[in-house]
Amino acid sequence: MKTLKDLGDLKGKRVLVRADFNVPLKGETITDDGRIKAALPTIKALRDEGAKVILMAHLGRPKGKVVPELSLAPVAKRLGELLGIEVPLAADTYGEDAQAKVAALKDGDVVLLENVRFNPEETSKDPAVRAPYAKKIAALGEAFVSDGFGVVHRAQGSNYDVAADLPAAAGLLVEKEVKALSKATENPERPFTVVLGGSKVSDKLGVIENLLDKANRLVIGGGMVFTFLKAKGYEVGTSLLEEDQLDKVKGYIETAEKNGVELVLPTDVVVNAGFPAGDTPVAPEVVPADAIPADKMGLDIGPESQKLFHDKIVDSKTVVWNGPMGVFEVPEFAAGTKAVAQGLVDATKAGAFTIVGGGDSASAVRNLGFPEDGFSHISTGGGASLEFLEGKELPGLKVLE
């Protein structure tokens, strides 16, 4: 994979950078600027070299239409604050305003192009549709830097086709992500523990399959765990259940046993009358994992499981975690996710290499107040880090080789 060094002297050159600024918004307020901060090292490195930095990114899913609420204006403002300079926002991605703002750049200046997904061609599955559009963007720059790890698992105009039109390299963030995830998957220090949560087993099938012969220990929580408990013959009440995955999960349980992989499931669960929304009251109750009442819904792992999961994580040399243990947005069902995060922090202190695998897990550790430096690596890409762990070839990385 080519890196910034491979691009040579960038002084005075127009460098297009695909960043990942898909941040959560409440109105025009960014509620978690982690992804913007993650892009700063690459932007600063390019500015220090005297490059003219042209940033592009997406926000939300405007589906090829201009949606004013999904403008990157709040990102340009926050980025300017973090860099201590003005970051103008172009009104389009490659049109007149983008061209004018790029032409006005001086060495070390930064401009942000408007949401690339306002263009229907950006996410087209047809390369013949994407290519001419990507050429219009590529015409703005003289080199391309891929620094949006959250999108490298997709072949899209601004991260894949543009890379084919210009001298291209990975930014510091993508380089760091690939190094960290490779360290966990290629030759992990053992014991190697993988902690999986989140709502659906189906989202994590590939990861489980790929890691059943790599990991020493698989720790399962979140909504996906109820399909595992059901596969063991337990009653799961009204908990989230993927009936169509039961046979697959039974197979995983057998394979884990055969491969000597320790499969750690919760021994107790926090249940409620239903999902805590609308008229459903929050009345948590702890029950054994094999005795969930038929009319109750599991929403977190219980206190005994929290200690079990924490201790298994601390007894590891490499830990990868993807997916919360429960509905962590509701304080009464956040303790399981907190226990896992604390386990990773304690394991890191004891010298383990720990990865928080992007998406909901990354936002959980921030929202629950854990320091970012408490972990070896917090990934910025949920889907991308999952596909990396599945051992898939990621088009946005392949194109940089």
CATH fold field value of the largest domain: Rossmann fold
Radius of gyration in whole Å, from Cα?
22 Å
Q: For this structure, what is the CATH homologous superfamily of the largest domain?
A: Phosphoglycerate kinase, N-terminal domain
- Mean pLDDT, nearest integer? 96
Along the chain, the helix and strand elements come as EEEHEHHEHEHEHEHEHHEEEEHEHEHEHH
Count of discrete alpha- or pi-helical segments spanning 4 or more residues: 14
In the CATH hierarchy, the architecture of the largest domain is 3-Layer(aba) Sandwich
Class of the largest domain, according to the CATH hierarchy? Alpha Beta
Cα distance spanning the termini = 4 Å
Structural class: alpha/beta
Strand order of the largest sheet: 10-9-8-14-15-16
The profile of the biggest β sheet is: 6 strands, parallel
What coarse outline follows from CA principal-axis ratios? Answer: elongated
- Sequence stretches where pLDDT stays below 50 over 5 or more residues: none
How many domains? The number is 2
Approximate strand percentage: 15-25%
Record field, number of beta strands: 16
Q: Could you estimate the helical fraction of the residues in percent?
A: 25-40%
Keywords:
5-stranded parallel β-sheet; Rossmann fold; 36% helix; 6-stranded parallel β-sheet; 14 helices; alpha/beta; 2 domains; 401 residues
